[in-house]
Amino acid sequence: MSHSSGASDASSTSDEEPVPAPSTSVLQTVNIRSHVPVALDLDVSNYSQWRCSFESVLGKFGLEAHVQEPPALDLRTAEWRRADHCVVNWLHNSIAKNIFDVVYKPRASAFTVWSDIEGVFRDNAVQRSVYLETEFRSINQGDMTITQYTAKLKQLADGLRDINMPVSEPSQVLNLLRGLNTKFRSLRASIADRNPPHTFMTARSYLLLAEHPGKWVFKTKLHADGSLDKYKARWVVRGFNQCPGVDFGETFSPVVKPATIRTVLTLISSKQWPVHQLDVSNAFLHGHLQERVLCQQPTGFEDAARPADVCLLSRSLYGLRQAPRAWFKRFADHVTSLGFVQSRADPSLFVLRRGSDTAYLLLYVDDMILSASSSSLLQRIIDRLQAEFKVKDMGPLKYFLGIEVQRTADGFVLSQSKYATNVLERAGMANCKAVATPADAKPKLSSDEGPLFQDSSWYRSITGALQYLTLTRPDIAYAVQQVCLHMHAPREAHVTLLKRILRYIKGTAAFGLHLRASTSPTLTAFSDADWAGCPDTRRSTSGFCIFLGDSLISWSSKRQTTVSRSSAEAEYRGVANAVAECTWLRQLLGELHCRVPQATIAYCDNISSVYMSKNPVHHKRIKHIELDIHFVREKVALGELRVLPISSAHQFADVFTKGLPSSMFNEFRASLCVGDTTAATAGGCWRTASSDSRGALHAHDAHPAHDAQRSSLRSHRCTSVRPGD
Asked: What is the pTM of this model?
């Protein structure tokens, strides 16, 4: 009995005792701005919002008593005083300077500061209320937009609420309608007579639709050969008027990565699977909206009985900020219900695996690539997709995202010859004289070299177009990267470099990338860096290329983010970038159910970088690249990677870091699987691949360097990842 009574007493005591506040050591680490999203400001009238947020923080940490009547002096312990100082610091850091200058007092308590802030907004409440209400009742829209007009009304209403004279929702709506200019007065009756009545925010959305209605967009869709496919008409809403957090939340929608496309096509060619291209008609119209969105009736389709009414959308429309994300979520949910698994390495890749049946699905907005282990499985998936969406089967893959895809006996050929020709015509260089290389072997250009170029928009437009061309043309990646560095203020010297790229494209417009079938899914990387090559920042340019079997699937040419103090440091940063990409590719291949049986080999022509990847001893001189070193060493220790030296004469990644002489450039370009697509698809021999060299060589070439390369790379082949694999 005594035990039961004691338990009851303890329970009663615990219910009455307040939750103890956290220690001051915890309070001192709190960043108040991450908890209070608004800064109190006299010019914004956000006192109520600020007070609500701040009181929730005080309640969260059990500190409400510090802004209420303080305890007697003899009850203020040292711990209490430290907590009070923390609250004072929070108050000072969450108010604007125009308020801080008024309430600041040396050695003031939290209660004093809190009371002074309240007095700033609530003293002379009667006089302030007369001024604010007069302005609120007399304001007119005039030349203001609906967004500006409603923001001003909301600011005045919040100011009245801060002095305990809140304006009711119906009054805000009626005052909004009263001040509208002549353009919107015809909408007053339809907004005021609505049942249930409009709130201030829904009335604002209604007026925004009238201010910026949607419009019909008419376009023509063409076939790959340029002939007319069909005419398209689409009602597009003005999504730029939407307010973040009110009309939409998340907007980001993933699209499939180019490296994923090349990797999947390489595997498909090795497995000899059928592959089709699919197109979803009006894809964004399939997305379900989570937010309340109103839309004006489309022009020509108004309801004659209720012409002033608007539509409440249940599905997305083109132009809405959240439309791409809504469509992607709808599609991902459906294919997941069919048994596909969304890849973690690339969210736009979906993989189906049921026993011996396997299928890959790649999504880029409304374009899809679908491949399956059998034609019957491929057709079943297409039928299931067509039952849910308006999907058009375009047949075997031939044209995807502006890339021409040609299937050959030993793989795929990707080219953008038509796009390259269009870029030349846009630039006015369709009849220019061709050159052998996209960049000369001279040092890199400075950002202030030569006079400014007058037509900077032309420079940016052509440079952006060339960036898309690098999807199938790794041979121009370095040159395009260099011209991209000067897009903010191009000069005449930079335009000369840009025109050289165009002249090179003129002579190689028919070139493309060849993806070959491979019997062994091995990853081989080549990494290089041009130390301190940038004349303005002395940052290095790093580049890498990664082969899956004999197919180039990933490459990069990029200026490093920091200055390297030695060539070894610059090279090692480049190796770390290549290893990071290889790690991602290994994960991607694993999700594609293609196990990589061998360790990835990364070739680097800097001996110091090779030693650092293996040597467990940490030196003082390399502590500033410690993260990169530990990252690479961890992969080496796990048996997933080997970093090996290679002669500079066989370093393919040189193409991505500097300009090369034409003889070396042509040799490395062939090794990157880039060549004339007309020879590849005419039944002739474009080039012959060597699995040991990890590169592509011309069939008629017989060069001693190639033999040395084959011998060198063959001796470094790694046959296992770790013991027992």
From this structure: 0.69
